[in-house]
Write a structure and sequence with these properties.
This protein is of the alpha/beta class. It has a domain at about 85-110 and about 210-390: Rossmann fold, CATH 3.40.50.1100. About 35% of the residues lie in helices and about 15% in strands. It is built from twelve helices and 13 strands. The chain has helices spanning about 40-45, 90, 115-125, 140-150, 165-175, 185-200, 210-225, 245-260, 280-285, 310-320, 335-345, 350-365, and strands at about 5-10, 15-20, 35-40, 85, 100-105, 130-135, 155-160, 175-180, 200-205, 235-240, 265-275, 325-330, 375-380. Strand 10, helix 8 and strand 11 form a beta-alpha-beta unit. Helix 3 packs across helix 7 and helix 9 (about 280-285) packs across helix 10 (about 310-320). The radius of gyration is 20 Å and the shape is globular. The model has no long low-confidence stretch (mean pLDDT about 95).
Length: about 400
């Protein structure tokens, strides 16, 4: 039985097509992001809502719209189908009755990055790739190292010197070559670009290949399935490279074509740190593209992406959905992280906590209603940011 209905690659900006049977990066015509396209009419005859009921509890339950043609090339560690938790007690602190958290911290390697790397490494294996390189703020490095180890592919990762120690260790644990770079993820990305051809690496930088977004889009598929094929009123998402927003928005379009959902979309909200908020600035200015941030700085390493390649796709999703973009202070992140843990027992990373801090801003600005269904995305476990947990404990005295 045919598994994937992948038929082409298409530029998300100029609509130029590329051959999906060849290794591809960005659009050869304009340099923008390539999207994987599927024969959704044919896929929908096999992959129905009813057929999902007996499938595996991972993102690969949607394999007809994932980019692996032969199951033998599927590289999986059990990613996906993370819980959607009704956080009643946390919601009450803001007067919200239908607040949910999609907890991506329960993925392999502890973050949502597992989804994208599962898809990208699987497709790389299928196309004969033997060596992969990536720039990362930390979590993507740990994920690519794990999935490359599972696939038998060599991984080389470049991270800023001040990336979290735990992700450096995770990457080493899975056998990756780890190099530290003075500067930001953009500086690490430059090194990867300059060395790929001569060293035989395939670059899997955020949205500079077509397949990581395919893994991320499954968050949208799961969300619809978990809410009985409806979408929430509002999605609040922490935004660095923005693949989650881009992937989910693409997934919503596919599900509508499949006949699984209607045309109603959630208001998409991008949350960034004040020290690195290119999307917020572009949104407020009315710009289609985001000017890179100079000297980007935030304690949430996953939000420290000064110039996302998918800026126009993120901004398009925000505007067409009637959503917005907000920036939060670093000083608000650790308290938000601890509030989520104290009220709901959820282990949230700093980036995930940014969504709760951002939600406070939305409430203050009257941009959400008390009875709306609102979903925050916690993109990783608190264990990926142990420095923010704190170790101050009392000593018991008899």
């Amino acid at each position: 039985m045919k598994r994937s209905y992948l038929i082409s690659l298409e530029c998300s900006y100029c609509n130029e097509e590329a051959d999906h049977s060849q290794l591809s990066s960005v659009c050869p015509a304009c340099g923008k992001v390539l999207f994987a396209r599927y024969d959704l009419k044919a896929a929908g005859k096999v992959m129905t809502q009813e057929s999902l009921q007996g499938r595996e509890k991972s993102m690969w339950r949607y394999r007809e719209v994932l980019p692996v043609l032969d199951d033998v090339n599927m590289v999986s560690l059990g990613e996906g189908m993370t819980p959607l938790l009704h956080t009643e007690r946390l919601g009450k602190t803001l007067g919200l009755s239908r607040l949910y958290i999609k907890d991506e911290g329960l993925n392999p390697t502890g973050t949502f990055k597992a989804r994208g790397m599962s898809a990208a490494v699987s497709r790389a294996k299928e196309l004969g790739v033997t060596s992969i390189a990536i720039p990362s703020a930390g979590n993507a490095a740990a994920a690519i190292a794990a999935y490359c180890a599972c696939a038998g592919i060599k991984a080389t990762v470049f991270m800023p010197v001040d990336a979290p120690d735990i992700t450096k260790g995770e990457s080493r644990l899975a056998g990756a070559d780890v190099y530290l770079v003075e500067g930001l993820i953009s500086d690490a990305g430059r090194i990867v670009r300059e060395n790929c051809e001569k060293r035989g690496w395939w670059d899997v930088s955020t949205l500079k290949e077509p397949y990581r977004a395919e893994g991320k889009k499954t968050m949208g598929y799961e969300l619809a399935e978990q809410l009985n094929w409806t979408l929430p009123d509002v999605i609040v998402y922490p935004t660095g490279g923005g693949t989650g927003i881009v992937g989910m928005w693409k997934g919503f379009e596919e599900m509508e074509t499949l006949g699984w959902i209607d045309s109603k979309r959630p208001r998409m909200v991008s949350v960034q740190a004040k020290g690195c908020a290119p999307i917020v600035r572009a949104f407020e200015r009315g710009d289609r593209f985001a000017e890179p941030i100079k000297d980007a700085c935030t304690i949430a390493s996953g939000l420290r992406v000064p110039g996302p390649i998918a800026d126009y796709l993120i901004l398009d999703a925000l505007r067409s959905s009637g959503g917005t973009a907000v920036a939060v202070a670093d000083d608000d992140l650790v308290p938000a992280m601890h509030e989520i843990g104290r009220w709901e027992g959820i282990s949230s990373c700093l980036e995930g906590a940014a969504t709760f801090a951002g939600l406070r801003v939305l409430v203050e600005r009257n941009l959400v209603k008390a009875d709306e269904t609102i979903v925050l995305f916690n993109t990783g476990s608190a264990l990926t940011t142990p420095h923010a947990l704190g170790t101050d404990c009392a000593t018991w005295e008899e």
